[in-house]
Amino acid sequence: MPTPEEDAEINRGIAADPDNPEWTSEDMARARPFPELVAQKRMGRPPKENPKEQVSVRYDADILAAFRATGEGWQTRMNDALRTYLAEHPLEEAHGQ
User: Fold this and answer.
1) Class of residue 74 by CB neighbours under 10 A (exposed 0-12, middle 13-18, buried 19+)
2) pTM for the full model?
3) What is the pLDDT of residues 51-74, one digit of tens each?
4) d(Cα 25, Cα 31) in Å, to the nearest integer?
């Protein structure tokens, strides 16, 4: 625990900090709980128009090694390769759902 002298020094530092003024009763009246603020404002990145879906899939080790060997962005290139395959080999409804 700080001594009374240390406590007084801490309080003087707080009072002198222009970036952290002491709250007034008006400030306290305007304050809202954090969950209330989060509900009003979406945090983080804006949602993507076409978001990717996370799945767990098993591929042969040599296939993964080949894509990983191409360096950073290999997952995107793998996705593009699958997209190209689908464009060149349209799936019949019987193979779908």
Assistant:
1) middle
2) 0.48
3) 889 999 999 999 999 999 999 999
4) 10
